[in-house]
Amino acid sequence: MSEAKADFGLIGLAVMGENLALNVESRGYRMAVFNRSIDKVDNLIEGRAAGKNFVGCHSLAELVSNLSTPRKVMMLVKAGPAVDTIIDSLLELLDEGDIIIDGGNTHFTDTERRTRYVEEKGLLYIGTGVSGGEEGALKGPSMMPGGSESAWPLVEPIFKAIAAKVGPNDDIPCCEWVGPRGAGHYVKMVHNGIEYGDMQLICEAYHMLKEAAGLDNDQLYEVFTQWNQGDLQSYLIEISRDIFSVDDDLADGRLLDKVLDKAGAKGTGKWMSQLALDLGVPSTLVTTAVYARSLSAQKDARVRAESVLSGPATSDVLTEITDEQRATLIEDVRQALYASKIVSYAQGFVQLQYAAEEHDWPLNYGDCALLWRGGCIIRAQFLDRIKEAFDEDPHLENLLLHPFFTEAVHNAQAAWRRVIVLATELGIPVPAFSAALAYYDSYRRGSLPANLLQAQRDYFGAHTYERTDREGSFHAQWLQWRRDPQD
User: Fold this and answer.
1) What mean pLDDT comes out for the span 79-106?
2) Which of 18, 25, 176, 195 is the catalytic position?
3) Of 40, 72, 188, 341, which one is the catalytic site residue?
């Protein structure tokens, strides 16, 4: 009697792929796996997958032949040309109605193109964001699938089985159909952009607490422990807390103090920023966070500049702070972080709204918030509030306009401003805090100085302008009508 066919195929056995394969198998499904370097296949089958419901394959043809129909094949390989190469190879082996799935960090435009291409060949295509890192892949990631909608019922049981679970009974999967073509990968990109902003905001809070409040790593651990029990409860606050407690295994002291202040990036934050510019949407937090990483990478240049460029004298301020002032500053930083975080998410959802209109995606924004409540890097307590806000009003223009978030930002506003003023006085850079407040102050004003800007454009380029008192487009003879400086 021949062995049963596998329920799911996976290509790419780096750590994410291997962990995801083990996750699928643990939910009762038979897995077929393949990797270009076949030693990875053998190592998995003989190692972590030994005795489990796996079949190791040494070619794509062997993988396909071991799958039940309709075949479901997921790629977890580096985004780029390699994905197109695998798709073309699979198209020669698969049949009409089979499903190709891309779980990598793919640019949404590639997923839009590939969905159409695969569908033209009679097959189905899914581009799904997978967030949560190595641990999430194994224990339950956040998943954001989009593509050929008729493929969703065929993979939904597997995807929802392996996804992270939330809710009072841990029975709500952080996985739901997002929309057609590249919608899933776009939502994942926005998740990553918000992640960039969150991380930068937390770093600025750390910088203020360390330099302005004078906290050491043990004190920072205690502060972040408290923060993780309130409004700021999140995965990133939790891991930041943990980082403060880790001793260096190579020298005395804490490991964090030996980590070079030079941050890397994989590009998804930059994508969100670039696409925001294309849409004309002010996603200032992610853009600021991307630039902050870029500046951190210029470590050698910053070291050279440090010996030349001066800032304010801070020693007197730092030595004279009292315990009461320190406690007040810690609370002010907490509120500034919370308010800035609200702005960051508000900008992310505004960009999703504009992108949905641009690309004709019927996005459900409450579901998007649900997808991020567990398993992913930005999982946080207040995502429940975001879901509730969009459930109450699916057409909510901006999260800042929902009563819960309006009140939260109003309550934090004074502290938020105090932190930025103090940072400026001390010469401590807080670009993301400042960008968040600048967005808030701009968004809450019915009038901005852009009237002068548009007048300038009309003066030098005849770009025309609109008026406040009548309809239509106008052009002024600024040069002829101006006051002569000699008069």
Assistant:
1) 96
2) 195
3) 188
